[in-house]
Design goal:
4 helices; 20% helix; binds tetradecanoyl-COA; alpha+beta; 202 residues; Thiol Ester Dehydrase, Chain A; 27% strand; globular
Amino acid sequence: MTSDAAIPSRGGLLPTTPPADAVLPERNPNAPAPGQPIPSHYTRCFVCGDDHDAGLRLEVIAGEGLSLTGSFTVSEHHQGAPGLAHGGLLTAAFDDALGSLNWLLSAPAVTGRLETDFRRPVPVGSTLHIRAEVVGVKGRKVFTKAVGRLGSADGPVALTAAALFIQVPIEHFTSNGRPEDVAKAREDRAVRRSVENLEVNP
Ligand SMILES: CCCCCCCCCCCCCC(=O)SCCNC(=O)CCNC(=O)[C@H](O)C(C)(C)COP(=O)(O)OP(=O)(O)OC[C@H]1O[C@@H](n2cnc3c(N)ncnc32)[C@H](O)[C@@H]1OP(=O)(O)O
């Protein structure tokens, strides 16, 4: 089911492992073309938004098929241990990068389960290069995995991750989000750009 053997497999039957009858759908024709940015879905998003002094500012580029690459540089704001990135923030980066794959399917989805393996410390000042792909879809369930490498796209593996996303109607966001933020989001340039591809209106 995996389209890229370069991402190490965790093996086993975790909930993030796609079942045998999972499929790999066609990429949505409205999705950003390979090599094009997948823009932030929300300027206030801590991981990919640009309206955060301490945010991760993850930048994501669409890849071939149902894949993408992303990168961000660990700043002093992202420390856990002195001089090292906080593991939770690294997990957040993977949540967003893996979640961005759903824009290639043009269906809104939320994280149901996210697993992260930390394999190497990530120092402040280093750039983490993420490669992520959809490895199967069954019904509303989108199975994904990713690898993060230090310094360059073929640098040493620092993290691997896998996630299960569940496709949801847009009302998941409009009904559950704090009303004043949802109201502001309707005017947010990033939200408006994102939902244009979803065949739904915010
Ligand atoms: C103005 C609007 C703006 C909008 C902008 C868009 C922004 C986008 C932003 C993106 C943000 C970035 C990302 C973020 O940060 S997303 C933020 C973090 N995630 C969440 O907040 C999600 C919270 N959870 C829920 O809302 C519900 O539980 C969901 C919707 C996920 C499912 O509840 P729902 O009632 O709908 O469905 P179901 O319970 O029948 O489950 C369906 C199937 O899924 C399976 N399953 C479920 N959970 C798990 C699990 N943990 N492990 C394994 N399996 C799981 C389940 O077994 C079942 O399988 P099957 O029995 O069918 O085989």
